[in-house]
Specification:
Chain lengths: 608, 573
């Protein structure tokens, strides 16, 4: 017997690790709409299996808790059972010896707080309140695009039909093919096998190969008119569907070109004008009138529009900047992300050659200006963030891309003041931070017991969020929540009959697909308001599902042009899939429109 | 065409054919359970799974379409093992007390388990339980439900009512009445289509046979039985006797063998209904007193559906009661008086192809007497009574219906098939307007099997726009079209069950088969061979008017044979 031995992993342990990996993928891709009480019971059993069994609350308590929850699911409980579950969970949370026990009980307590009504429904009605959502990608897509259909069509080379399917719910297929945040992939069932299907990449493949796909014919003219304020994704989406429904739409845009944040917020290397213009041209081909350079509140008022049009849709976006509120912020050389990207949208390209640039922020916009600065010729680019890189809200691939292009992320530094010389910014002075306790789901940084540091620079770009210029609309009677227009879920603006609002100006800065959703919702409700009931429908035969490709197969990611090359230009950064890759990727789709719950309930929606 | 190989046989099938259908075309039967053609192909039970080269998973034959060059194995060791395990799993979740189940011997699960030679279930039994109000016409036993979801799809797709839902997830996923409601509050029409599509004994109609046995046994009680038109198309299904033995007259003999005192024909009351309804239609058209179009009102499933979903059309319903209720009212008045019987001593029994008739008989607004019909039996219950009494039906001598309520015309018998009420009414309306009979088959244009049929019929120079609809989802579509102005009719016949009463929710069940059309054919044959083809020529109906009712729509007729449709409401959430 040796005195000590090096540890070796047994086959059983290795396999269990593998099972945990597979389970964590399953958890990450969890289906939508399952019974939360049922899940609570299952989570408890997993937690109990992880218990060492030493302390009473964990060993016995979790087992009894799970039995109580199961009894309730089997129809054996009453209201007292809920009290007992709660009391027991609290005792376990309070008295377990380690996190395996107290965190398990916390699951139950958190659930009890969030879905107590579901527990009660099980007792009173013998049924769950939630409904299983059958096609995860379509459900998760805010615009509810029929994703399995266009993936199957793409796989069959029917690209134009794929575009028609997308346009039924989203008139920006080209834009979304490049820059959608693809929430559809979050719960992709394919993750249970290996990893999510590259849905966005396949959409781009369809777009790149479809050629010009004509838009459908409009319904007979209704004689009703709609004014859309703002030519961004929400406004143009509404304009598209309202035109299809037979209404006459006029879009008022304060800038010189249409597109909103797609044009004035997203850099060309991610979304070239040609892609954006393809979608906008298709939308305008329905006969949408456009008035550029008109500012509502200055050139014309909301009241004017309400008088002259049957309905008004406000989609002004979030185009003004938020300030750091630190000393020296108004010095020359300190600009906002909105200002920089907006100028580029109007083809005013600054030259950063030889300059040291510092960006403040941690979101996707911060990454956009970081990478844009590099492309404008900056000598050095540093992105300063007060939390850790892990806590940044920017997509991980954006952060990795920026680093690959030679930008630096300076984490855990909070801006203190701008050092100014002759009215010009000379350095950003920052206070080192320590990451600390959680607050509202995120760890909060606090000042470290370290001296301030100085980051010398010529240009400081502030990318800490955007604000909404909603003053005129508030003066015209629109209710506000902070600076956001307080429209309801249907897009109606309370108190202003016939006025609807949506997109960033209602939700705060969000994604393009959320703006498209808002436009679609508004179109449906404006149509109802105008007395129409014209449904948007499509009749494309969807290829039948095959039973192949259910075994694990790697996901094809879109590659990017090499960092060294791409960082010098504004050309599209992402490369398309090859045909070979696209065909394999489309075949990875598990066709949840055919397999699983969809054939029973909540399957394909052919019209809205 | 697609070429494939199934169990070594080369098969050519049209594109889009399922493996199940392709196999069947070459005589290979793949067992199924949850599958029901055109209604349910959700691949839930995994009994029809097959092995296909190129797939590492077994595929469901019911909803996988053929593709070129595939080789399918419907009965490999892997398939057999998976299939048997799945059936054993189902049995572990099923109340297997088969000896006391109404579907014993006619249960898809039982047949399948026997076929697969399942002899033990190696799993712990875990059976669902649920409470159910036992007085309701429709009964559900959760312990027998196998969650095949046929009822859900039947109610959603065929009947457009969505009474059933699937709720919960995981092991607690279950079929239940929507929103946790009691079924009568959920808008159920009691049509019973979920019952006849249920593969097992989970859904049944309330059993009232004991009440009839008691009435027959009681020497003080006079039992009067009426037998609905469609019953004669299927009454002997459970006895395995030849079609030429399973005659209408032998059905009468069978009813008499039970010891029933009088066996009458609902066809008589159907003829009576026509006299009233045709008269009413003519009044509405010529005098304009009444909402148009006029809807038939003899189907309680339809009437209940309409009151729940489209109550604004209540005035469009004919005020005529259904043949069942007319018969009951006449039996307890005219017949009782004529025979000198105290109506209180009469037990009025009907045999119906329908589960909703059990509900209708309890509706106060369609009862002219204390209770026009005391007990409603389905065709299935009638057959069960014969079995319980050991009646050797094949050996019975044929018998005639009793008089004076036992004569029915060919027009009466086709009440049991979609289009029949319309055709019967048109035959008599023609006579009422012109004084002469049309050719008996002059209006056969309204026959057919499509769910919605339209026809323009010329009666004495007037064009009558008629529509015939069966299946409640179709009825909903038709009413939507009327509401939106897309369709205009004068007279509309609606039957809740697809194909009409011949396919009714009280008819014998043959799993996986839709028999409404071939049962309906039998009724049209009975019409064509009947010497009487017109309701207004039924001598017993004429006698009833002469001796008692005077004429159609008379005061007395209104009292006994009509209802105030507006007062009949349903309490639905």
């Amino acid at each position: 017997m040796s005195r000590l031995e090096v540890t070796a992993t047994s086959k059983a342990e290795r396999t269990v690790r593998g099972l945990y990996d597979s389970l964590s993928r399953r958890v990450a891709a969890s289906p939508v709409g399952n019974c939360p009480v049922e899940l609570t019971s299952a989570f408890l059993k997993l937690c109990l299996a992880q218990s060492c069994g030493k302390c009473v609350p964990c060993r016995v308590g979790l087992d009894r808790l799970s039995a109580l929850v199961d009894g309730l699911l089997d129809g054996d409980g009453d209201v007292k059972t809920i009290d007992l579950i709660e009391k027991t969970a609290r005792a376990i949370a309070d008295s377990s010896d380690c996190a395996i026990g107290f965190e398990a009980a916390k699951l139950v307590l958190d659930g009890m707080a969030a879905f107590r009504d579901d527990y009660i429904s099980h007792i009173e009605k013998g049924r769950c309140t939630s409904n299983f959502a059958s096609i995860p990608c379509t459900v998760e897509c805010p615009a509810h695009v029929d994703i399995p259909a266009y993936i199957a069509l793409t796989g069959e080379g029917r690209f134009a039909d794929a575009i028609r399917v997308i346009r039924k719910d989203n008139p920006f297929p080209s834009v979304c093919g490049l820059i959608c945040e693809h929430p559809c992939e979050n719960h992709c069932r394919r993750s249970l096998v290996d990893s999510a299907v590259n849905i966005r990449g396949l959409k781009r493949y369809a777009i790149d190969n479809a050629g010009n796909v004509p838009v459908p014919a409009c319904a007979p003219a209704t004689g009703k008119t709609v004014a859309v304020i703002g030519g961004g994704p929400a406004g143009l989406t509404a304009a598209y569907y309202l035109s299809l429904m037979g209404h006459k739409v006029t879009v008022f845009e304060q800038r010189t070109r249409l597109g909103g944040m797609l044009r004035y917020g997203i850099p060309c290397y991610r979304l070239p004008d040609s892609y954006l213009d393809a979608d906008i041209d298709a939308i305008l081909s329905l006969g949408v009138d456009v008035k550029l350079g008109i500012k509502i509140g200055k050139d014309v008022t909301l009241d004017d529009l309400r008088r002259d049009y049957d309905s008004v849709y406000i989609t002004i976006g979030a185009h003004s900047d938020k300030k750091l509120r630190i000393e020296g912020e108004d010095a020359e050389g300190v600009i906002s992300a909105v200002e920089l990207l907006g100028g580029i949208g109007d083809r005013e390209i600054p030259d950063f050659t030889g300059k040291n640039v510092v960006i403040v922020g941690g979101g996707n916009v911060a990454m956009d200006v970081t990478r844009t600065s590099m492309r404008l010729g900056a000598k050095s680019v540093k992105c300063v963030y007060r939390r850790r890189i892990d806590d940044m809200t920017a997509l991980p691939e954006e952060i990795e891309g920026a680093i690959a292009e030679g930008c630096e992320i300076v984490e855990l530094k909070a801006p203190s003041y701008v050092e100014v010389e002759n009215g010009k910014a000379k350095a950003l002075v920052v206070k080192p931070q320590v990451i600390g306790a959680y607050n509202r789901g995120r760890p909060m940084p606090y000042n470290a017991d370290l001296p301030e540091e100085r980051i010398p620079c010529d240009i400081i770009i502030v990318a800490i969020g955007q604000a909404i210029e909603s003053k005129h609309f508030a003066e015209s009677g629109a209710p506000l929540a902070w600076d956001q227009i307080d429209a309801n879920k249907a897009g109606e603006v309370p108190g202003l009959d016939g006025v609807f609002s949506g997109g960033d100006c209602v939700s705060g800065p969000s994604t393009v697909i959320k703006a498209i959703e808002a436009g679609k919702v508004a179109a449906a409700n404006i149509d109802e308001y105008l007395g129409g009931h014209t449904e948007i429908e499509l009749d494309v035969e969807v290829p039948v599902a095959t039973y192949k490709f259910k075994t694990a197969c790697g996901r094809v990611n879109n590659s990017e042009r090499e960092a060294d090359e791409r960082k010098h230009d504004f050309e599209l950064m992402e490369k398309p899939m090859t045909k070979e890759e696209a065909m394999q990727e489309s075949s990875r789709c598990l066709r949840c429109d055919h397999y699983g719950c969809a054939t029973l309930k909540g399957g394909r929606v052919n019209k809205w | 065409m697609v070429k494939l190989i199934i169990d070594g046989k080369t098969v050519e099938s049209a594109e889009g054919t399922t493996i199940l259908a392709a196999a069947k075309s070459v005589g290979i039967n793949i067992p199924t359970l949850c599958y029901f053609e055109k209604i349910n192909d959700i691949g839930a039970c995994r009994v029809c799974v097959c092995e296909v080269n190129g797939s590492d998973k077994l595929v469901a034959a019911c909803n996988t379409v053929v593709s070129e060059g595939i080789e399918v194995y419907t009965n490999s060791a892997r398939v057999r093992a998976a299939r048997k395990v799945n059936v054993e799993l189902l049995l572990s979740a099923h109340n297997c007390n088969c000896v006391a189940c109404v579907r014993s011997g006619n249960c898809a699960l039982q047949t399948l388990a026997n076929d697969l030679n399942v002899r033990t279930v190696p799993y712990e039994t875990k059976i669902a339980k649920d409470k159910w109000e036992e007085t309701l016409p429709l009964q559900r036993d959760a312990s027998k439900c196998i969650s095949c979801m046929r009822c859900v799809n039947v109610c959603d797709e065929l009947q457009g009512l969505s009474v059933w839902e699937v709720n919960g997830s995981g092991a607690h996923t279950k079929v239940a009445v929507r929103d946790g409601l009691r079924i009568d509050a959920a808008g159920c029409a009691f049509c019973g289509q979920c019952i006849t599509h249920c593969p097992v004994g989970a859904l049944t109609a309330r059993d009232d046979t004991d009440r009839v046995f008691e009435a027959i046994e009681d020497s003080e009680t006079i039992t009067v039985m009426q037998i609905a038109p469609a019953v004669r198309s299927a009454w002997a299904d459970a006895f395995g006797i030849a079609e030429n033995v399973a005659t209408e007259k032998r059905m009468v003999a069978a009813a008499k063998a039970l010891g029933v005192d009088y066996v009458f024909d609902t066809n008589f009351a159907a003829d009576l209904t026509i006299m009233e309804e045709a008269s009413e239609l003519i009044e509405r058209i010529t005098k304009g007193n009444g909402a148009m179009p006029m809807f038939t009102s003899c189907c309680p499933g339809w009437v209940r559906f309409m009151r729940y979903k489209y109550p604004e059309f209540a005035d469009n319903l004919s005020s005529a009661k259904s043949p069942q209720q007319m018969f009951g009212a006449v039996a307890k008045t005219y017949f009782a008086e004529k025979m000198g019987i105290d109506p209180a001593k009469i037990c009025s029994i009907s045999v119906m192809p329908c589960s909703s008739k059990k509900y209708e008989s309890d509706v106060p607004e369609v009862n002219a007497t204390d209770k026009d019909v005391d007990v409603v039996l389905t065709t299935r219950e009638f057959a069960r009574m014969l079995k319980a009494d050991h009646v050797n039906v094949a050996a019975l001598d044929e018998a005639e219906f009793d008089s004076p309520l036992g004569t029915g015309s060919g027009a009466g018998v086709i009440f049991g098939a979609t289009g029949g009420v319309m055709e019967a009414a048109l035959r008599t309306a023609y006579n009422m307007l012109t004084g002469s009979n049309p050719d008996a088959d002059a209006f056969k244009i309204v026959r057919g099997s499509e769910g919605i049929r339209e026809a323009e019929v010329n009666v004495n120079g007037t064009t009558l726009r008629a529509a015939v609809v069966s299946g409640l989802a179709n009825a909903g579509k038709l009413l939507d079209n009327i509401k939106s102005g897309k369709a205009k009719y004068d007279f509309v016949e609606v039957m809740a069950c697809p194909g009409g009463c011949a396919g009714g929710g009280g008819q014998p069940i043959v799993d996986g088969m839709e028999l409404a059309a071939c049962r309906g054919e039998k009724l049209y044959e009975l019409d064509s061979t009947n010497a009487l083809r017109f309701s207004h020529e039924n001598p017993e109906v004429k006698a009833l008017y002469n001796e008692y009712l005077e004429k159609p729509l008379s005061h007395k007729a209104h009292e006994l044979l009509h209802t105030e449709q507006k007062n009949w409401t349903v309490d639905v959430k």
